[in-house]
Design brief:
This protein has about 325 residues and is of the alpha+beta class. The chain contains seven helices and 15 strands. A seven-stranded antiparallel sheet has the order 2-3-12-8-15-7-4, covered by helices on one side. A hairpin with a 3-residue loop joins strand 10 and strand 11. Helix 5 packs across helix 6. It is globular. The N and C termini lie far apart (about 130 Å).
Length: about 325
């Protein structure tokens, strides 16, 4: 009898286990078609967007659309910025000028100095101020210095006043090297001083300044630009900038070119970025002098040199006698 009770108990348990399973199956099958459709739509909403596109694909589509819009904006802005060759390398010019309205900050500052008050800012380009032999002497001065160091990037400088010389990824003082003692002769330095004075007088005449109103200031330096990749920020000469913001002492900037665009190097043109959506370029020519007021009215940059070597001298002037620097001299 005990065995019979056990058998009945087992049969009952077995029946109880089966019933829920069958009930579950019945419940699933009894779900109305409308509810199944609703569940299916709900699942679709989680995976797809309102037009049947996966949400992941929607994000990609938006990113592509935004990128496309950005490209269009950049292209349209570029198209609005025209470029003209203001002074080409092929032409020889006695003087080319462009008057400009001074930036407010520059005008207010420069008019504080006696003899430096100007009615208009602007820029000038002049050829014919120097003879070939003097230009070769100036280039020789620079090349002598480069024997003791140059940048590992694309821009090397030499400052005859402070002794700063690019070397690798830093600057050294060339005057601390015993080997550079009397490296430049009095004749060479006299040629450099004469070039500085010639340009100073041209700036005074062109901008209507008093004779002793401006003084040589720092930094004034030789520069060599090549197509070597930049190694430090000092090699990145191609960024648009305003000289007065970069060098507080500057009031008038001048450049004397010691090599020819086109035949000795490619790229490296000097570009004025003007507010009328017009970039005006100056193509370097050996012996050519470019001079301009150093304020915000003369935003500019130099194109990257893509081939060859570009040589020039930057000679800066200030109206503030406290920031004047002496001429270089033979160091014993």
């Amino acid at each position: 009898m005990v065995s019979e009770l056990k058998q009945r108990s087992s049969a009952t348990k077995s029946a109880l286990k089966k019933k829920p399973s069958e009930s579950s199956k019945q419940n699933v099958s009894d779900v109305p078609d409308e509810k199944k459709t609703a569940n299916s739509k709900e699942a679709g909403k989680k995976k797809f967007g309102p037009i049947g596109i996966k949400k992941e694909d929607q994000l990609w589509s938006r990113a592509v659309l935004m990128t496309g819009v950005l490209v269009i904006v950049i292209v349209m802005k570029w198209k609005k910025t025209n470029e003209i060759t203001w002074v080409s390398q092929q032409e020889t010019v006695a003087k080319v000028k462009q008057p400009l309205i001074c930036s407010t900050a520059f005008h207010d500052e420069i008019n504080k100095f006696e003899g430096c008050a100007i009615k208009q800012c602007g820029r000038f380009v002049m050829d014919g101020l120097f003879q070939e032999d003097q230009l070769n002497t100036l280039l020789g001065i620079f090349k002598k210095g480069l024997q003791f160091g140059h940048s590992s990037g694309g821009a090397s400088i030499l400052d005859l006043h402070s002794g700063a010389l690019s070397k690798g990824e830093r600057f050294i003082n060339i005057f601390t090297n015993p080997e550079t003692k009397n490296i430049w002769s009095e004749t060479e330095l006299a040629s450099y001083i004469d070039a500085k004075e010639t340009i100073r007088r041209a700036v005074i005449e062109n901008f209507g300044l008093q004779l002793e109103a401006i003084h040589l200031t720092s930094p004034t330096f030789f520069s060599r630009m090549t197509d070597n990749p930049a190694k430090t920020v000092h090699d990145e000469y191609w960024h648009p900038h305003v000289d007065k913001e970069t060098y507080e002492t500057f009031h008038f900037t001048s450049l004397l070119y010691l090599s020819d665009y086109g035949s000795e190097f490619q790229g490296g043109r000097f570009v004025f970025v003007d507010g009328d959506h017009m970039n005006r370029t100056v193509e370097p020519r050996k012996g050519r002098v470019s001079m301009f007021t150093s304020g915000g009215e003369n935003l500019h940059y130099v194109e990257k040199v893509t081939q060859g070597t570009r040589y020039a001298i930057t000679i800066a002037f200030t109206c503030d006698a406290q920031h004047a620097i002496p001429d270089p001299h033979v160091r014993n």
